[in-house]
Design goal:
Elements (H helix, E strand, L loop, with lengths): L12 H14 L10 H29 L4 E5 L9 H8 L2 H10 L4 H6 L10 H15 L4 E6 L7 E4 L5 E4 L12 E2 L5 E5 L2 E5 L2 E5 L2 E13 L6 E10 L6 H5 L3 H4 L1 H7 L16 H22 L11 H4 E6 L6 H12 L4 H11 E4 L10 E3 H7 L1 H20 L4 H7 L6 E3 H8 L3 E3 L2 H11 L1 H6 L4 E3 L6 H7 L2 H11 L21 H26 L8 E6 L8 H16 L11 E6 L7 H18 L8 E5 L5 H7 L5 E4 L11 H7 L3 E4 L5 H8 L5 E2 L4 H10 L3 H7 L1 H11 L12 H9 L5 H19 L2 H13 L6 H13 L6
Parallel strand pairs: 1-2, 1-11, 2-10, 11-12, 12-15, 15-16, 17-18, 17-20, 18-19, 20-21, 21-22
Antiparallel strand pairs: 3-4, 5-9, 6-9, 7-8, 9-10, 13-14
Bound molecules: C-(1-azido-alpha-D-glucopyranosyl) formamide.
GO cellular component, one term: cytoplasm
Protein name: Alpha-1,4 glucan phosphorylase
Keywords: Carbohydrate metabolism, Glycosyltransferase, Pyridoxal phosphate, Transferase
Length: about 800
């Protein structure tokens, strides 16, 4: 007898259908007969929300009135994905919804598809924040997600006729957005600029201008916990948005200048991933949401108190800084405590250090934010003063520890002309963690070595995770049902390590065949999805091989496309016999930051290789390549369950963790990858025999750098590589234009900083091993099932439990 513990609301289908009709009537003002799918989507969303309000209120009051320390997750990005299906699952209303909308004359899929996916993030960091607030609510831990409601999220990506990326604004708020509740009565004032003056011996900041931070609240329902947390995203508004006097002088544009200046702050998400943005508006965004959120937290936890005892603040809530983007929060809390609540420096510092913790998400020096002191001084003059004083205190502390001047010089937070935010976060908080075991070790051994030597107890690791609710249950219902059948319970959805119970079933050929059938059904579904969304005809009788992630040189999409070109050439000139060709379809999905020249050229190359290969009758049915436009959460939820082979081929020591790798393993794809980021832990847990490993280790990479890396040597050494690079250079993929990719080829042969050429031979060699196994579907699927069975560790619930134990020292509400 299979145990089903999934939440199921007592509401009947008929009652839920009536609730939708009521919403259609009173909020959409249409009859059920007139209603469109978009109307029913909004009505159903509001009906679900209404079922969550009581738990939301209860969670808030238990949080404020109880003794359970809450968690505040500060993040400039929350890549939430579509909300309706997730809310239905956690509210236990999925079946009622499916039946109710059919009763209203619609297909559930059409209503779900009517939702516009919010894209308030760039990639892994933003999606991790979304998975983490889902797990916090599902574990019953009181928490706030704090961020920005950008009017425009990550750009929409299309390709022009030459395969170049074209970016267009993301108008996600153009239609009614039923999930966010805008709360004008709980706004906060955020100020900028001006000067600092002495008044009665006290420092007083006289800002030059202010904006109104208005919260837009999103419910974050937990799975099975009965708890509903809050995601509070701030939108910027102007206090005096319209200058009537100027308007009356027919200076219409000037009349709205104040409004534009203010609203600009939450206008758009900066589209850079793993690269710092040095723009003033970016710093304004960071200070805007952090200042509003800290004042909001004091309002929430000390309701109505004019002079609250803020020495208890760190017991009320602990804040996680999601990368360096919210680190200005450290001098901001100091300013609030000293200037607004008259605490002395030492008390303020003690409170601040206990309140914050910092997660570093990168190893790339260019991604660590360093703000010009002049910019902070101009925009936030009081904060620069406080940062200088924090740095003085810090240097004194280091001297007290007997640390030498040269080291202190290297560790300076304030260097005279710049402020190093990662150093401020490390000194200003209680804990620092990396996002995978290898990453956290490299932080201690390299990136933050001086700090780890001085403050070893601050450094810890919390390996990333993903929520199984969205990335297995919603994305892969076929696999979910099979897992529940195999385990005899659906409890794995809130305790993912129960997947280990599938290990014995990997030796049961019948069960493995059922697993294979699920994968084939998902491939069939994706063929239909691809036809509907991209107009392409994918051959489902091929190996589905996927590489989806942001376009960045360290992730090495270049290695993948060179291997594809090599394969194409081998088929074309008969180097590989027809029988030896294993039909493969390669799917790419990747957005490049608009200003990232070589990344955009790589996208153009991939699109043109796709054009040539897919229109070449000599390779039809043997090799196909697609760059699917506008990679987003929806595409991930459809492509990951259909994928058989996932690419995690970054240069060792560059990908902090990766989280796509976890989603693919949990959905029964095998991984070809390097010993980088969380790949290391995935391989350890699924078994080396169930993972295709290739390439240099971190140590071998470091040796290459030390010895002086010459990419041309590898170009000359491997004829497969030489041929592939030459085909890129000779115009084969650019209608004969030999200059089209010249900058890319030149970079490969003269610089190749992330050593694509050095790892090419190993990568090309392992393809044979992959194809040999794929010719034995039972063995392939047995290994794929063992990936699922042994990947329960990569649940974001486990990550949150690690944060609770190692960093936050709190837990679920009673
Ligand atoms: N920024 N940032 N960092 C990243 C990703 N690009 O968003 O954070 C992700 C979440 O921690 C990591 O998985 C990934 O390796 C890392 O590069």
């Amino acid at each position: 007898m299979t145990e089903i513990t999934a939440p199921k609301s007592p509401v009947t289908t008929a009652e839920f259908a009536d609730e939708i009709r009521e919403q259609l009537k009173y909020t959409q003002n249409v009859t059920a007969e007139q209603a469109t799918a978009a109307d029913v989507y909004v009505a159903a969303s509001k009906a679900v929300r209404n079922h969550l309000v009581d738990s939301w209120f209860k969670t808030q009051s238990d949080m404020v009135n109880g003794n359970t320390k809450a968690v505040g997750y500060f993040s400039a990005e929350f890549l939430m994905g579509k909300q309706l299906e997730n809310a239905l699952l956690n509210a236990g209303l999925t079946e009622q919804f499916d039946e109710a909308v059919k009763e209203l004359g619609f297909q559930p899929k059409d209503i779900v598809d009517a939702e516009y996916e919010p894209g308030l993030g760039n990639g892994g960091l933003g999606r991790l924040a979304a998975c983490y607030i889902d797990s916090l609510a599902s574990l019953g831990v009181p928490a706030f997600g704090y961020g920005i409601q950008y009017k425009y999220g990550i750009f929409k990506q299309t390709f022009d006729e030459n395969g170049k990326q074209v970016e267009t604004p993301d108008y996600w708020l153009n239609n009614e957005e039923p999930w966010g509740h805008i709360d004008y009565n709980r706004d906060q004032k955020v100020s900028f600029g001006g000067e600092v003056v002495e008044e009665n011996g006290k420092k007083v900041w006289k800002p030059a201008w202010s904006v109104r931070a208005v919260p837009v609240d999103y419910m974050v329902p937990g799975y099975e916990s009965g708890r509903v947390n809050t995601l509070r995203l701030w939108t910027a508004k102007s206090y005096d948005e319209f200058d009537l006097l100027t308007f009356n002088k027919s200076e219409y544009l000037d009349a709205v200048k104040p409004q534009v200046k203010a609203e600009n702050i939450s206008k758009i998400l900066y589209p850079e991933d793993s690269t710092k943005v040095g723009k003033e508006l970016r710093l304004e965004q960071q200070y805007f949401f952090v200042s509003a959120s800290l004042h909001d937290a004091i309002r929430v936890f000390y309701p109505g108190e004019a002079k609250p005892d803020l020495t208890t603040f760190p017991n009320k809530i602990t804040f996680q800084l999601n990368d360096t983007h919210p680190v200005i929060g450290i001098p901001e809390l100091m300013r609030i405590l000293i200037d607004e609540y008259d605490y002395d420096w030492d008390t303020a510092w003690s409170i601040t250090q206990k309140t914050f913790n910092y997660t570093c998400h990168t190893l790339l020096p260019e991604a660590l934010e360093v703000w010009p002191a002049s910019l902070i001084g101009e925009l936030l003059p009081r904060h620069l003063e406080i940062i200088k004083k924090i740095n003085e205190q810090f240097e004194d502390e280091l001297k007290g520890k007997g640390i030498d001047d040269a080291t202190i010089e290297r560790m300076r937070i304030y260097t005279g002309d710049s402020v190093r935010m990662a150093y401020l976060a490390t000194y200003g908080g209680s804990y620092v963690n990396g996002v995978a075991a290898l990453h956290s070790q490299l932080l201690k051994d390299v990136t933050l070595k001086d700090f780890s030597d001085a403050y070893p107890d601050k450094f810890t690791n919390v390996t990333n995770g993903v929520t199984p609710r969205r990335f297995i249950k919603l994305a892969n219902p076929g696999l979910s049902d099979l897992i529940t059948e195999g385990l005899g319970t659906d409890k794995w959805l809130s305790n993912l390590e129960l997947l280990e119970g599938l290990v014995p079933l990997a030796q049961d050929d019948e069960f493995v065949k059922k697993f294979a059938a699920v994968k084939n059904a998902n491939k069939h579904n994706f063929v239909a999805f691809a036809k509907q969304h991209y107009g392409i005809d994918v051959d489902e009788n091929t190996l589905f091989n996927t590489m989806v992630k942001r376009l960045h040189e360290y992730k090495r999409q270049s290695l993948k496309i060179l291997a594809v070109i090599s394969k194409y050439a081998a088929i074309k000139n008969g180097t590989v016999s027809a029988d030896d060709i294993l039909p493969r379809t390669v799917f790419f999905g990747a957005k490049a930051a608009p200003g990232y020249y070589l990344a955009k050229m790589t996208i153009e190359l991939i699109n043109n290789v796709s054009r040539v290969v897919n229109n070449d009758p000599d390779v039809k049915g043997k090799l196909a390549v697609y760059m699917l436009p506008n990679y987003n959460i929806e595409m991930a939820q459809n492509l990951i369950p259909a994928t058989e082979l996932d690419e995690q081929i970054s240069q060792a020591g560059k990908e902090a963790s990766g989280t796509g790798n976890m989603k693919f393993a949990l959905n029964g794809a095998l991984t070809v990858g390097t010993l980088d980021g969380a790949n290391v832990e995935i391989r350890e847990r699924v078994g080396a025999e169930n993972f295709f490993l290739f390439g240099m280790t971190v140590e071998e990479v470091e040796k290459q750098y030390a010895d002086g890396y010459d990419p041309a040597k590898y170009y000359e050494a491997d004829p497969r590589l030489k041929q592939a690079v030459n085909l890129v250079a000779d115009g084969t993929f650019s209608n004969g234009d030999r200059n089209a990719y010249a900058p890319l080829v030149a970079d490969w042969l003269t610089k190749d900083w992330f050593m694509t050429l050095a790892d090419f031979s190993a990568y090309a060699d392992i393809q044979g091993e992959i194809e040999q196994l794929y010719r034995d579907p039972l063995e392939w699927n047995r290994k794929a099932l063992l990936n699922v069975a042994n990947s329960g560790f990569f649940s974001s619930d486990r990550s949150i439990e690690d944060y609770l134990e190692r960093i936050w020292h709190t837990g679920p509400l009673a």
